[in-house]
Design goal:
The chain has 330 residues and is an alpha+beta fold. The protein is 16% helix and 41% strand. The strands form five sheets. It has a nine-stranded antiparallel sheet. It has a six-stranded antiparallel sheet with strand order 1-2-15-14-13-8. A five-stranded antiparallel sheet has the order 19-18-17-21-25. A hairpin with a 2-residue loop joins strand 5 and strand 6. The longest helix is centred in the first third of the chain and has 11 residues.
């Protein structure tokens, strides 16, 4: 078991032991030691009076101080929970698609986690930092009882690292204060963020007549090059779309740097120029699947919507990015 009193994780494994016992071990020194050891048997000897620990591995012996396991904080239990089950692959994909968009602003604690909406029709995961927003929805995972809660980033980061890559079922139990995840021999429990999540649906524009379809890899690599020449504070790039041509440019006036690239695309709508923070676009394109992406826009001062051009019929991915005010360079 390990805990920081907000998030707790437990697992179990088979060992050969002469007697039962409990001991608390400093995690950092233990993990650093285990990382450097080859794949070989190791043994722990614990003094039941001083809780001193000796680790033996091969020809090495390592001693460290432990603590009484009885003093370790009790792992909390989710009382009177509701529950839902989902494949590990679905939960892993939801975390991968949303976690990068979570805010780091502690003054807006609701946005420092991922918002989960359970319904009889689907399950939805949302993350935003007010500059970008991601909504990931699964139509093949549902809950009989509607519910909403906010999962903290740290717990999701631990889940992301621990979830298997196959379709092992993950049992999720939750109440008003905590959520509990169980899969295989791993249990994770975390305190929920007790805040009201912003009305994210209100900021998603519904009328977007200007639609751009472009190869994701070409677009991504172009942005990576062009942003090198952009202002290092704003990361601003200009998208100028006309016919079947997308011109991407950037400029850093202070250092007389500028870049221009032209890409072929499919475009339906009026010619337009719009500015974006390239850093946000790059993050989104890195986390979108598919060969081609669809960018929907209404006007230069309204949010753009980025999504895969083709996707699994049981999956809906929508990423929103706010525009930036364009400079006056050509």
């Amino acid at each position: 078991s390990a805990t920081d009193l907000q998030t707790s994780m437990t697992t179990s494994l088979s060992v050969e032991s002469k007697e039962d016992g409990k001991v608390a071990i400093p995690s950092k020194i233990l993990l650093e030691t285990l990382k450097t050891l080859p794949d070989q048997p190791i043994s722990f000897s614990v003094d039941d009076k001083t809780f001193a620990i000796e680790i033996s591995a091969g020809d090495g012996k390592y001693k460290l101080s432990g603590e009484n396991g009885e003093d370790f904080p009790k792992i909390p239990v989710v009382e009177n929970p509701s529950s839902v089950a989902m494949p590990a692959s679905v939960l892993s994909e939801a975390i991968n698609k949303t976690l990068f968009a979570v805010s780091g602003d502690e003054l807006r604690p609701a946005m420092t986690g991922v918002y989960c909406q359970l319904s009889p029709q689907h399950i939805t995961f949302v993350a935003t930092d007010a500059h970008k927003l991601v909504r990931y929805r699964r139509l093949d995972t549902k809950s009989e009882a509607p519910a909403t809660f906010i999962l903290p980033k740290k717990a999701l980061t631990l889940l992301k690292a621990s979830l298997p890559s196959d379709d092992v079922s993950v049992a999720v139990e939750y109440n008003n204060t905590s959520a509990f995840f169980r899969f295989g021999n791993i249990n994770l429990i975390c305190r929920l963020i007790d805040e009201r999540y912003p009305d994210y649906e209100a900021v998603i524009p519904t009328n977007n007549p200007n639609k751009l379809i472009i190869d994701r890899s070409l677009f991504l690599n172009c942005l990576r090059r062009v942003v090198i020449f952009a202002n290092k504070t704003t990361h601003q790039v200009r998208l100028k779309i006309s016919g079947s041509e997308l011109n991407i440019s950037s400029e850093d006036i202070d250092f007389a740097n500028e870049a221009h690239e032209r890409l072929s695309c499919q475009y339906e709508g009026e010619d337009m120029e719009i500015g974006f923070n390239a850093k946000f676009l790059i993050e989104m394109l890195n986390n979108l699947g598919g060969e081609e992406v669809l960018l929907e826009m209404s006007s230069p001062n309204r949010a753009g919507l980025l999504m895969p051009q083709t996707h699994d019929e049981q999956e809906e991915v929508l990423m929103l990015v706010m525009p930036v005010m364009l400079n006056n360079y050509a």
